[in-house]
Amino acid sequence: MDFRIERSSWQEGRQDLERIRKEVFVQEQRVPEDMEWDGEDEASIHFLARADDGYPLGCIRLTPSGQISRLSVLESHRTQGIGKALLVAAEEEARARGMKEISLHAQTHATSFYEAAGFTVVGGTFLEAGIPHRQMAKELA
Ligand SMILES: CC(C)(COP(=O)(O)OP(=O)(O)OC[C@H]1O[C@@H](n2cnc3c(N)ncnc32)[C@H](O)[C@@H]1OP(=O)(O)O)[C@@H](O)C(=O)NCCC(=O)NCCS
What we know:
Number of helices: 4
Oligomer: single chain
Strand order of the largest sheet: 1-2-3-4-5-7-6
CATH architecture of the domain at 3-99: 3-Layer(aba) Sandwich
CATH superfamily of the domain at 3-99: Gcn5-related N-acetyltransferase (GNAT)
Bound molecules: coenzyme A
């Protein structure tokens, strides 16, 4: 399936970003709304994956401190390379901003996805929104 990755501010992309994250995190994964909308969105850079017709399929954000978060792809469009392309876009943005390291809180089911992209687990398991996570990091050479 063809898709494109688009860079976005929160203000520009808000409607589409909210739609994806509500479907994936709030509805599918039962993340409480007050945790999902954590106040980090305004200052973050966002990326949206869109189908050819513009329909929003997935998203990710990079915070000013170099944290990657909220990677999500609609269930109907998974395992087609969209998540990986979003992660690469956020990493390229971090490099362009001169960040030396990026980090993330990976849901434990996704650690191998991030390891394949060069991230390493750097700590133990902890709960966030009731979901087990591991801290992961990647040095940007
Ligand atoms: C995790 C997620 C973003 C992956 O998106 P995706 O578009 O399906 O991933 P891709 O198609 O780009 O997968 C890239 C590679 O990772 C693998 N992969 C995908 N999801 C994986 C997972 N959960 N665990 C391990 N490997 C995974 C794919 O098989 C693929 O391997 P390949 O390159 O050898 O073919 C998606 O499953 C999702 O939105 N899940 C729900 C929200 C979530 O858990 N987000 C992560 C928060 S930490």
